[in-house]
Amino acid sequence: MDSYNKLYINGDWITPAKGGTFETIDPSDESVITRVAAATAEDVDLAVKSARNAFDDGSWSGLSGKERAVYLRKIAEGIRERIDHLAALEVKDNGKPLPEAVWDIEDTAGTFDMYADLAEELDDNNSTAVALGDDRFSCEVIKEPAGVAAAIIPWNFPVLMASWKVAPALAAGCTIVLKPSEVTPLTAMELADIIDKAGVPAGVFNLVTGMGPDAGAPLSEHPLVDKIAFTGSVPTGSRIMQAAARDLKNVSLELGGKSPFIIFDDANIDEAVEWILFGIFWNKGEVCSATSRVLIQDGIYDQLMARLEEETRKITIGNGMQDGVLMGPLVNASQYEKVTAMIAQGVQEGATLLCGGQRPDGFDKGYYLQPTIFVDVPDDSTVWTEEIFGPVVCIRKFSDEAEAVQLSNDSRFGLAGAVMSKDIDRCNRVARKLRAGIIWINCSQPTFSEAPWGGYKHSGIGRELGVWGLNNYLETKQITAFNSDEPWGWYIK
Ligand code: NAI
Ligand code: MG
Prior knowledge:
Layout: E1 7-9, E2 12-14, E3 21-26, E4 31-37, H1 41-56, H2 65-81, H3 83-94, H4 98-125, E5 128-130, E6 137-145, E7 148-152, H5 158-172, E8 175-179, H6 186-197, E9 205-207, H7 212-221, E10 227-231, H8 234-245, E11 250-254, E12 260-263, H9 269-281, E13 293-297, H10 298-313, H11 333-348, E14 352-355, E15 372-375, H12 382-385, E16 392-398, H13 401-409, E17 413-414, E18 416-420, H14 424-433, E19 438-441, E20 456-457, E21 460-461, H15 466-471, E22 474-482
Parallel strand pairs: 7-8, 7-10, 8-9, 10-11, 12-13, 12-18, 13-16, 15-16, 18-19
Antiparallel strand pairs: 1-2, 3-4, 5-6, 6-22, 11-21, 14-15, 17-20
């Protein structure tokens, strides 16, 4: 695509009603990449009505799963054909290192392929007989598409987060309106072009770029939307749920986290260091499931911390397009200010800054920040309890399993958790005690599109990915038949 100043609605690229645009920034040098179409309520209304018409006319919902799968595979193919361009665009708009962006794009294509498989399976598995307590009746349960879906997504994994919602919605037979983050809109716009070229019927997929209050809010309030899927911050998730309550829309929310990583005495030091680093510094720590609270058992603490500090200081920071860079800039100025303000607050609240916390030398432009480690972090300090969403890890010592579990669960969040020990029984026991939706044993972060993703408590509602993600976009219908030769005999005796 060579310009990004239009919205994709009802199969066409159109100028926003008010003609507005906004800038998207390259966080590596703070330059403007391009101007992007800014949707307002009028455009959102048009997009939702297009999706409503396309749903109601059956041009998509009326296809078999196998027919929809053909389109989903074409979309996956279109993504793979543009992988170099999409990955470079993601680096430019978000700042992440290129290998991580390539990973995102491969996963995005993989998500469409997996949902193509699940769409095909829908055809075969879509009728379940249910035995009723009365043999005069038979009952069949079927799944049907939920209707018009709205997807509102964040900036940390821009096109991948789009695929986690668009692919299952399309597989289920829903039509959809996607609102990407205003911070990183470009790859979602490329995805719209790929979906268009795959021949998906007009109105089935629609894209509105724009600000949260101007485009996201009217989308979450629109009466013709049946289902809302949101990933982002807790306050915005709560606002969307309130808007959805008015029309009793179905809502799924994937929100923040403050996930613990428990390391027991018997862990291998280098493996522990590797997964602690990956758990907090990949994608610059802008990861909802980041294991940002690390709990280390006292017997291994000094040795592990020495290695962790040594390896952290070696992390190469720079423009994500440069070879060997492991950490790019934070996504934008406001995220940089938020993270650095929280670091200052951590110091004020009595946590010890072991390393990092500063802009690295040699960068006068760009939102670069050193990888940061806090130790001896008070358990009531903001840096211990609140999501920082940046490359900042908080570390505490513990002495026994019960204490580690108690400290881990003492959080309003419950997205993920990780545990490391050579004693696999202990890992499995702790995995069951942690109140969170995703638990990693002897690792942190690897994510597979086949497995359910989502959190407990303030981390959200519902699960994405796998068959759980597909079910988000399906309604369940019972069809019950009276088969008896004997009359019912209530009124007419
Ligand atoms: P946000 O939650 O406000 O934005 C996410 C999406 O919601 C964007 O597309 C935005 O335009 C939209 N939005 C904003 N206000 C809306 C409204 N009133 N109605 C409907 N949609 C609305 O997150 P933001 O401002 O980009 O980042 C703020 C903080 O959120 C970060 O510092 C981080 O802590 C957290 N965050 C968490 C993410 C996660 O994956 N759990 C992802 C991104 C941010
Ligand atoms: Mg940007």
